[in-house]
Amino acid sequence: SQTIHQWPATLVQPVGSPLSLECTVEGTSNPNLYWYRQAAGRGLQLLFYSVGIGQISSEVPQNLSASRPQDRQFILSSKKLLLSDSGFYLCAWMGGHLSYNSPLHFGNGTRLTVT
Amino acid sequence: GQQLNQSPQSMFIQEGEDVSMNCTSSSIFNTWLWYKQDPGEGPVLLIALYKAGELTSNGRLTAQFGITRKDSFLNISASIPSDVGIYFCAGPNTGNQFYFGTGTSLTVIP
User: Fold this and answer.
1) Is the pLDDT of residue A100 over 70?
2) Do residue A111 and residue B86 have CB atoms under 8 angstroms apart?
């Protein structure tokens, strides 16, 4: 079966520090991968999605970047965090060897607090 | 991105009551998904709908894919305390970018 791992679960970082959040998927190949941000427990905002290694699409201009160095690895980064980057970050996957109609599956999220 | 409007925004109900919530889109979707999110966790898929008019059940949950393909409904029968959480609708565009509704927060009073 397929599983998704996201870490760390919580993170407290000072303003101006770098960020690296990692997400890996097991049990499938060539999945679509996504990063979402959720503020105040509501409203999932799509940040980045990737349909393959090295292929990243950004939904909104922001202080963050994403990379996909391996098929089942998706990384969210920032060179210098802002206070407004605080939030709940969720990684998700779909597809791969499954059918086109595969739904989206989420990791357990990372709670980021920028101080 | 596409907008999904979800209502109601929040609900406070007595245990045992039925719940109804809906989601509307400004554009057509070929898939509708319903998720539940518990505090501090990622959303979990409840029901997936793939065909206009489709009615699908998962235990006490029933969801429908609207005929116009611009709306969907989720019903929960005989609510229990563990139904508490935030419920989201979602749909993908043709590029498999998934957009989410604003969420319905459900509180069940024992």
Assistant:
1) no
2) no
Q: Is the pLDDT at A68 greater than 90, yes or no?
A: yes
With 60 as the cut, is the pLDDT of residue A27 above it? yes
| pLDDT computed for residue A98 by the predictor | 47
Q: Please give the sequence-ordered ranges of beta strands (E in DSSP) within A1-115, or none if there are none.
A: 3-7, 10-13, 19-26, 31-39, 42-52, 55-58, 65-70, 73-78, 87-95, 105-106, 110-114
Which residues of chain B are within 8 Å of residue A101 when distances are taken between CB atoms? 31, 48, 50
Enumerate the residues of chain B whose CB falls inside 8 A of the CB of residue A113. Answer: none
In whole angstroms, what is the distance from residue A22 CA to residue B25 CA?
32
Q: Does the distance separating the beta carbons of B40 and A111 come in below 8 Å? A: yes
